[in-house]
Amino acid sequence: MPEEDMPDLRYERVRKVFHTRNVEVVALNDVSFVIFEGELFCLLGPSGCGKTTLLRCTAGLERLDGGRIYYGDTDFTAIPPFRRGIGMVFQNYALYPHMTVYDNVAYPLRIRKLPRGEIDRRVREIMELVGLPGVLRRNPSELSGGQQQRVALARALVYRPRLLLLDEPLANLDAKLKVYMRTEIRRIQKQAKVTTLYVTHDQQEAMAIADRLGVMEGGVVRQIGTPSEIYDDPANEFVAGFIGEMNFFPARIISWEGDKLVVAVGAAQKRKALRAGIKAFGDEVTVALRPEHLRIFPSTSGEGVFKGKVRVVQFLGKFVRYQVAISGDAGLVEVDMPAAVPGLQEGDEAVLDFDPRDMLVFYAGERVA
Amino acid sequence: MMGGITPSARRLLHKDYTVYLVLGLGVLFVVVFLAYPLLRTVLIAFVPNGRELSFSNMSLVNFEKFLTSNLYRRSLINSFYISFAVVGLTMLIGVPMGYLVARVEIPGKHVLLSLSVVPLIMPAFLGAFAWIILLGRNGALRYVFERVGIDLPPIYGPFGVILAMTLMYYPFVFLLSEGAFETANPTLEESAAVMGARLPRILRTISLPLIIPSIAAGGILIFIRAISNFGVPAIVGGSTYVLPTLIYFQVNGFWNLHAAAAISLVSVLITGGALWLQRYIVSRREYETISASRSKLHIHRHPVAKALAIVFCWGVVLVSLFPQFTLIVMSFFKTWNGLWPRGFTLSHYLAIPKFLSGPIKNTLILATSSSLGAAMIGTLIAYVVQRRRPPGSAVLDYAVMLPFILPGIVVAVALLSSFSSGYLILRGTYWIMIISFVIRRTPYVFRSVSAGLTQLDPALEEASILSGATWFQTFRKVTLPLIFPTLASGTILTFATLLTELSTSILLYSAKTRTLSIAIYDSVNDGDYGLASALAVVLFFTVFAVTYAINRYTGKSMAASFRIG
User: Fold this and answer.
1) Which end of chain B is more exposed for a tag (fewer CB within 10 A), N or C?
2) Using alpha carbons only, how large is chain A's radius of gyration in Å?
3) pLDDT-based confidence at residue B208 (cuts at 50, 70, 90)
4) Who has greater pLDDT, A226 or B284?
5) Contact B16/A at CB under 8 A
6) Which residues have a Cβ under 8 Å from the Cβ of B311 and sit 6 or more positions away?
7) Do residues B375 and B494 lie in contact, with contact meaning Cβ atoms separated by under 8 Å?
């Protein structure tokens, strides 16, 4: 087994219930998965999905109501947080306002009673790594948001923790800095070779930064995979809709042809290979297609799967987006074409088509083909 | 894969129990020196004096006195009558004054605001004492009134008590309503004016109703202070007893702790009920009168309005400063009978060194150690209640805040009834005084530290814990430095109030632990007004200096730190 595939952090049926005024909220419902050594793992989900709770349980800041968390061979569950050896970056950075940058970063080392010279060497080394060597004598309040972010990272990494936790670290930065810092965080993480759990609600951020990611909803991990797996091969309708843009169409099953499924969608019948292990399901299914997987033509150039009227044409740089109202459907279908389609303007009649291999079929929310 | 627990893993499992130890100590203190004495007080209230504390001896004899004894009945009635009169008069003075200062152009407004808090810094019994000098049988003011044909009631009795308390407590109402009128949303009044309402109507239908909830809440706090006050009725009450002086009478005159306990219980039920009412009103306060708009309040500039406002506001402030002025003058003279004081002397001040080794030293030792004790216990309990929320923390919260509604003399009765005999005899020691001060002042520190902690992001402490610090290291290096400003100002303010403490120490002091307040109280009772005044001036200026320093340190104005509500 290659080293980066060694399980480092293992969640086994982790359960957490919050009680607020006689109402029980299940924040984590038997969550089980594994994070590998040296990996940058993103937990992604809408707010309230339980991702921050899982992070805080990992840190030991919340007690589990069931299940266990293992770090390597060690059962983390009963170890108090100050002995877990975890580095954490908080959403608002949590820099100590009464200490200089140097003292902030040196704090964990002083707690560990390292010799002065060693502390000094390590603080300078880590500040070099996070790319902020010149501000040691300043107060945190004198730094910009991005700089505070780097100090927080330095403080979390300076004692070489076995695990780094990041809680929405970019939430307080402006859009441009966000994009820059996520590259920086990944560079620093890889250089420090620290297994990292990164929580965010921003799917672009997660896709850009993660080695693998877990999509959470309602206290459950709905899918785990690399960014491309999650994007190209969503396991259920929630993930399909949550990650990237997706058009959903109602469809009906016509027949089975061996391991192939024939569905009636729009005015056409399309075939797609069934997923293994799918036994039986009803007639009504949902077909999902990414905007870039749909093609649009003027209605004069032939028949398609859907007919509709172009409502909006947006030139978005690398592609052109068409928003099309198709008959019998209230919502607008989004179609991305690499270049403008000649002779197709707002108000024109158009037809849509797609390659059945790009089609995703869901039954009762779960992927079947 | 899982393996057994290795030795290093076992070491990892060692939890940090310091926080439980600290919590345990705090709880122990509260249980031994607050819960137990109070419980004992409640129990002995139901047992006749001289009987063993046992279930078979329980009866309502001590409470029946409120029906049978004239003294008890009158004390209860006096307490209510005086407190209601004080609330009513402070409202009558404070609310109009608040409106005038907020809405009329008055020269020297800031000076006026600063001077108005001076009576609050003055210990209550010193104010009462000064009024005796001015309005006693041969008082200068009485002389003036008699000359113009006004016959004032005697200073000893309800008149003196109500006068001293009113002029001492009115700043609370004044500052509260001044703030409310100043921050009220001007558009509400403007819209009424646009609809055709004249000033009296606007006042009656808009301005006043808007601030009534906060004024009412402030009024109840004054009621609680007035009915719990010992110093004023003890000095000028004469034969007019109120509940606190009746308690004192029972303990000091007859050593009847059982009767004192019963009176205390009645007194606490009254203040507790009043506080409940106050909380209820505050929680129902539904008007958002703070304005976010840029619109300016209408400031009256009419000459007649200005003249009226100047005479009224400056008049009240100057009259309320009579006591300070009187004490300073009196401290330099042998006698003050009739209009002018006679016989200039420095002998009163020259006598002060005699007090250095006794009362002054005691006062400093007791105030210092007690404020440090209150700071420590208040901080630790606030931390545990705010951050750890262990089971039962709500009970702890209430227990710590309980002395807030306990009149000082009741705390003294509770401690005397528990530590005068038995395993732990503390009567007459420094310890019983320190404990009583700590118990009484912990709520103040607890409240200010709790407020400081809610402002402090828990992530700061979590970051420290995760980077390997134990609870104690985190508390010492992160939490404490960050809440220190709040803690320091709370502690020093506590120190200032303890310098003048009278109502608890009056029952707990012994020859060895006599304080400066007690010495002044005794000098007044001995008729040695000059010496009492000199000591009072020293005490007052010390307290003033400390309060002023702490306000400079926190950057607040004197007036701001005394706003309540």
Assistant:
1) N
2) 25
3) confident
4) A226
5) yes
6) none
7) yes
List CB contacts (< 8 A) between A107 and chain B.
464, 467, 469, 477
* Secondary structure (DSSP) of B378-396: HHHHHHIIIII--TTHHHH
Rounded Cα distance, A142 and B240, in Å: 64
pTM of the model: 0.80
Can you tell me whether residue A236 is helix, strand or coil? strand
CB B519 within 8 Å of CB B500: no
Q: Does A256 touch chain B (CB under 8 A)?
A: no
Task: Give yes or no for a contact between B538 and B522, defined as CB atoms under 8 angstroms apart.
Answer: no
Q: Is the confidence at residue B319, as pLDDT, over 90? A: yes
| Nearest C-alpha neighbor of B532 from the set B126, B222, B208, B191 | B126
Q: Which of A59, A96, A159 sits opposite B460 (nearest CB)?
A: A96
Q: Is the pLDDT of residue B388 over 80?
A: no
Share of chain A above pLDDT 70, in %: 96
A290 Cβ contact list (under 8 Å, min separation 6): A244, A245, A246, A247, A358
pLDDT digit string, tens, across residues B90-105: 999 999 999 999 888 8
**Pure H helices in A130-270:** 145-157, 175-192, 203-209, 227-232, 237-242
Q: What is the pLDDT of residue A359?
A: 93
| Residue whose entry in the numeric block shows the structure tokens 């430095």 | B481
Which is more confident, B58 or A198?
A198
| Separation of alpha carbons A197 and B210, rounded Å | 53
For residue B516 the two structure tokens come to 């400066």
Q: pLDDT tens for residues B30-56? A: 899 999 999 999 999 999 888 888 878
Query: What residues of B are in contact with residue A75 (Cβ under 8 Å)?
Result: 2, 5, 9
Looking at this predicted complex, what is its ipTM?
0.82
Over A153-179, what HEC string results? HHHHHCCCCCEEEEECCCCCCCHHHHH
Backbone φ/ψ region at B338: left (φ over 0), alpha (ψ -120 to 50), beta: left
Nearest Cα neighbor of B231 from B128, B314, B134 is B128
